[in-house]
């Protein structure tokens, strides 16, 4: 099992979250701030099986809009190994 942590611009939260949930991924959203000018960002937490990581990251990348400024990044994705998962 893997945990995907995606840090995106606020503007991309709705389309990315909607696309992920439509593809049957469970998504937890956390409001966050960061960067030089403290722009609003959203952190998405997505738990998934190892074989679904590529699909999830593809969905995230495809549903992020192009930034107005060329040097601005669309987002950051971390993929972490999960040793234990308890659902109750």
What are its keywords?
88 residues; Alpha-Beta Plaits; 4-stranded antiparallel sheet; 38% strand
Task: Give a description of the structure.
By secondary structure, the chain is α+β, with helices and mostly antiparallel strands. It has a single domain (2-81), classed as 2-Layer Sandwich (Alpha-Beta Plaits). The protein is 26% helix and 38% strand. It is built from two helices and four strands; from the N terminus they run βαββαβ. The protein has a four-stranded antiparallel β-sheet, with helices on one face. Strand 2 and strand 3 (39-48) form a beta hairpin. Helix 1 packs across helix 2. The model has no long low-confidence stretch (mean pLDDT 90).
Give me the secondary-structure topology:
Elements: E1 2-9, H1 10-22, E2 27-34, E3 39-48, H2 53-62, E4 75-81
Antiparallel strand pairs: 1-3, 1-4, 2-3
Helix pairs in contact: 1-2
Shape: globular
How far apart the termini lie comes to 17 Å
Q: What is the helix/strand order?
A: EHEEHE
Major pleated sheet: 4 strands, antiparallel
Query: In DSSP terms, counting alpha (H) and pi (I) runs of 4 or more, how many helices?
Result: 2
**Rg value:** 13 Å
Q: Assign the CATH topology.
A: Alpha-Beta Plaits
Mean pLDDT: 90
Secondary-structure content class: alpha+beta
Query: What's the number of domains?
Result: 1
The helix content, as a percent range, equals 25-40%
CATH architecture: 2-Layer Sandwich
The fraction of residues assigned to DSSP E strands is: 35-45%
